[in-house]
């Protein structure tokens, strides 16, 4: 039999309190944790809240009119009427093509010399629209905008000249939760989730690796501190900090970005707590498994930043992803919180959405912390 | 309730990438209550592994650890080699943390803290950040944190490494004072005077216990083989270190050491005095050895040498220079460093080598009123000294006296607040790269990348100083052989024991044959045998014109310096040759440098108030 | 060693060579750091290329058809047959339909009122109601565009079958460079640059901070390495590693994702090289400013994250407010994205590419100069 481990039994509240106090003192002494928890989210929220916008407005486009038909100018006027497009008339196709190629315009509308003839004749008069497909999203949005302008133009023609053609069906659009389709309203709540994912992982990714690298872990192992006390002691201070950062972000979203809030703050607090535990747990897991600050840093950043941006549904809709990827997003904690936040901010306490997402967060927090617990060794090798 | 610990047939091996290395190969022994058991042995003998197994931080592959007292689970306290103090917490906060973690009753705390503060004299520094304490005070705080709840068994892994002589004495007396309460202490150390002071010593070699018992009993093994010669005070007979080297090369001599005014010699057979008549130096031939009582150090060195010889004959595993004729060290150094015969490109050492007899007036290293302030703290205060070519100059002082800061200013790593620091006529902070290529620097902290092999680190260390590929390969082989590092060349250097790391760091510093060597505590944490080899090399290099600036906490080593300065609180408080310092600052028949040192510090404190921490 | 006939340059190159070798070994020999640097970008390329799509497919649709006529069923069929929509629910009441949207079960409700066919037959323009969930604004916007085109198609089909009067003009839409408007063609070249930027920045930002923490930096400073040699020796390994990875991702993009490579490979490599140099210089400047790995990690993160978000990688720079657009000129990623996408998809003219190259070079040189100045300051 080997020498018994010095590990204490069970769970001692005083021991934990002592450890938490130490961790908190370290946080206070080194302001970088506080900066990370509170200042960094504010900075990122401002930058991205203003910077990330999917609302393509004022898209430059070239219009080539080769016909003298008056309808052509009618159409041009309706293009000019939308706030999304900035049409400029260009002399010929070649000039327009070169503008498109150089990125000066995002698309071209071409009304050929047969336009007038066909308008009044039997065949359907074509309007050609060319978009720069490099940026597929902008291209698609542009197509949508042109189409919208075109549909308006048709309705307008019907009004001016009733019975001239088949009466088009008119769709009455209503966009719920975000009536003006302002991308800020959908992005800012998601952004809070993305930012806090990164903050949480940054806060804890180094805290255990650091103890190993600085040699303090060996001294800790000689005390009766238990594994669960160690882990909880590492969680509590950063949980407090993280929730502080979260609150600041929510306040900024409500005041500066003027995103309305329709849900309950208690629900927000509870779900944010689950989320915080999940991301802090992820950081601790990385820290415990790597025991090395360099590797922990890289894993924490590559493991959270891009997945949180791309797989959380914050910009890219998860429902549009291939099934395999949709399944993969299940392990991205931000995804659940993005959905909770969007719902709370834009729709309200819709339990059928919030409940399952909260449960998923709770499950993930448990998973990460269990792995951390399992991987925590009270031995050196 | 007194309790001890008995361990039986402990084995433990570690897997590296290539193979499995047995760190402990069946170690048995006992730590008795009320006694200090010393654990000594060369670097890599398995001392730390054994302590970690006893502390329960490592599982042994086989073997038993049992309590010898009535308690099945005695309370154990363990202080790791590098005790993990939280440097961003204060002294008091660190102690409170460990009190919390050990569950010390709050009612008892005030009393315990004041006891420990009295014990460690850390009371006045309760609100200092641990990171701002000196090395010695950190160790004391570490010990205080370890002792927060009185243990039954106390395991200390080299607590005195990097600690200055004054603090080292304090640390020792702190632990001695625990004896009354019946605590069983295991104290691992590289200081043989400490081992001598233990109640029981376990000698570990290559994962095996090769001897154990009372230090006096172990010393008794060499009882009739220890001799001393009184060295003449005038320099005509030759410099002390030359005499020492001449004595060490005698055919029947195992070890020769300068001890104050004496030269201690251990021979290989009982009652046969060292054959000084065959000495190469006339000065030595004139001296007469007389028998002297053995010390633990003598026995230790004899035991180590015997083991090395056995090992060598069995598996030829460690073809070390030390294990051969000690005289070979000097020859090997000459060979390996190419000193003397080949002209050196940078001119300095080669000229020195060619004109060994010529005293050159211009100093190689010179400072004038060198000062450095950090905020309102003065780390170095108007420090002036000069070192001539081929001299070994020692910079001594307690932890935090300003030695490292002085070093860094000389190397151009720290910009002086005022004053000058010139190395070979250059200010290294602004000098061109080729000026820097003349120095070799060994930092206090091991400064090589842990997951690269020794060879890879050496390749960089040499290559970056301009050694071309072919010359580099040749030189690495040469230096590796010379520093006895061949066995480790392809191991990751981070996994090596501290002493080997230090050896490697010195090897890297001399790869490019620098004219000037800066060594900041090069022997800290190094076992006694390796330290002797180390100094033999330094001496040989100095003789061939290399100028060496060195700091050390081992004052017996300081005897090898030509001159030294003792600094305290950033100021020089004494300077001169070891003999000058001893005669000026210590009494007695044959005072040691350590006595002079402690006296100097005490005197200074008395005149300047309490000793402060920084 | 310093004989005058041996040019100093050769010595400097030799010193840099040894430093580069040491850096490579440092990164490469540690199995964990090797895995962590190589594997994630490749995995992430696969994951994110599929994920980062603005394509709107399989939009769950609820149809609340109050008009049980042939015409209304025709209209509904136009929706349900489209790949864009998935016919998910047929609510029988308006509150039920509302609830479906609330709970996120469907993204859109199509409501055909009772008078739809009557109005249609009588030659009036019938109105239908389309309700879209705006929580995901981009999806909503694109869904609306799809709805428009489906309705337009319906109208045209009716006109054709009835052979009635003049047909409305046709809108013929085409996309250049990416005819199917495949999001991956857009995302993959950008993703390659973004992922390698993260790696390059992290390696370089942590490198000196780590040496400072381990104490090896002082040892480096006392060697004859000059500050600029130190910088070059640190830049090369990080840049080469990230560059290799970038090219690998590019090859994967072509082979696996079928992204066309229409332009000049040399321009692509040149662009990537300049990009890597400027990114690693930034990383080293961060590293020189910080003293611990934790600080370097945080600072590196504070650099990477805005660079990624404000690069045009996910959302177009044109959409950003002017002051943020101005900031993006400091972001090397924005330029390389233009080059990457331009070379891959549209055979960008060399002059346009050069216009993107020089700002990156300026950023690189400036940050490199700052890093050198910081090295000169030494430890204190």
What do you see in this structure?
The complex is a heterotrimer of chains A (381), B (614) and C (380). Chain A is of the alpha/beta class. Chain A has helices at 13-29, 32-51, 70-81, 93-101, 115-120, 136-160, 183-205, 207-214, 216-221, 227-255, 265-290, 293-310, 323-328, 333-347, 351-375, and strands at 59-65, 85-90, 107-111, 126-132, 170-176. Chain A folds into two domains: 9-52 and 182-375, no CATH class; 59-160, 3-Layer(aba) Sandwich (abc type-2 transporter like fold). Chain A contains 15 helices and five strands. In chain B, helix 2 packs parallel to helix 4 (135-146) and helix 11 (327-337) crosses helix 18. In chain C, 67% of the residues lie in helices and 8% in strands. Chain C contains 14 helices and five strands. Chain C is elongated. The model of chain C is unreliable at 1-5 (pLDDT under 50). The chains are: A alpha/beta (381), B alpha/beta (614), C alpha/beta (380). Chains in contact: A-B, A-C, B-C. Strand 5 of chain A pairs parallel with strand 4 of chain C.
Query: Major sheet of chain C, described briefly?
Result: 4 strands, mixed
Percent of residues in β-strands of chain A: 5-15%
Averaged pLDDT of chain C: 84
Which value, in Å, is the CA radius of gyration of chain A? 28 Å
How many domains of chain A? 2
**Count of the domains of chain C:** 2
Radius of gyration of chain C, whole Å: 28 Å
Structural class of chain C: alpha/beta
Helix and strand sequence of chain C:
HHEHEHEHEHEHHHHHHHH
Shape of chain C: elongated
Order of helices and strands of chain A: HHEHEHEHEHEHHHHHHHHH
Q: What oligomeric arrangement do these chains adopt?
A: heterotrimer
